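Throughout our pipeline, every protein is held as a single compact record rather than as scattered files. The record that follows is passed on verbatim for readers who wish to inspect the format:
___
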Amino acid sequence: MWVQPLGFYAAHILRSHSFLNPHATERQLWYLYHEFGASPRDLTQCVTRPNSYELKLTQKIQHLNPGDLPAIFKDPGSCSVSDFILTMYPSPEGHSKYIVAPASRRVLLLLWDKHFRSRLDEMEYFYDLFQGSVVTYAAAGWIFEFRMHDLLLEKRILRLFPIHCANIGKVNFIYSDYTATEERKDQVELELPELDESCLGDTIPQANCYYYPDSLNFPGIDSLLLIHPPSKATPVLLVFKITRSMSRHYVKAGSLRNIDRLDLPKNVHKYYVAVTPEGIQPNITIPFPQGAEQKEAIDAVFPVFHCPVPGRELFPS
């Protein structure tokens, strides 16, 4: 089994291509490692042929028995496929122990689409497992995100709690002054219809479609949804950030500007919605628009909401 070298994230700075594959570029090495967590052996062999590596990985995942996955993560040596789907880290408890995590977000998404999406028991098992260590905590966040994409595509009532701006300075708006309780009178309820899903281009051509934006043009935004609820006189654009993180979240100014450039209905209301597990309160910072007067800047910033998700909705029994 290959154990991920702790310093490999900086390997591209050290010109790792000179000993891994002299014909590869640093960008090629970084892509294959970042996307798939490829081992040094596979980086050497496949770095100039990433499509062949992805095909081989996909085929191995296709042939996996989903019931075997818990055993593979407990005992990586029990299956040769573990070389492709997981990474081992030294345990803080001692050199004789190790921690097992998915090789990358992309690998976990491939596993999700093939095996987890239709199996709530497997989904919940790995969600709980990955929360048990700071090393694997990010993987629990990936599962939460994938699961929420599926839930937001369902016909459901979305309960949103406004997050008030606790501090308006010359640089940032900081949203953290709120409480999510059943008794709040200012909560917003939106009825989601059945939705289609699509990748986001330069425009949002239709309502009731759940869009996945390009991360390069919309960094920090996980999805967008344009709806016209019966309870609202005007359409609403929901901009979702799905996270388990309790640390401060900085909204990218470029993402907000690019949303304003979309071909949206003129009377649309735009809501920025942080979706978290119940009990996690996001602390959100939105950059102050440069060159704008304070009142204009306040009007330009989206209303910010929190959507807490109870565990019983995440993995219903």
Notes: Residues 141 and 301 are 27 Å apart (CA to CA).
